[in-house]
Amino acid sequence: MNKSQENFYKSDSLWSVYGINSKEEFYKKINLSPKFHEGVPEDQAMNLKPLSIL
Question: Considering the entire predicted model, what is its pTM?
Answer without folding.
Answer: 0.44
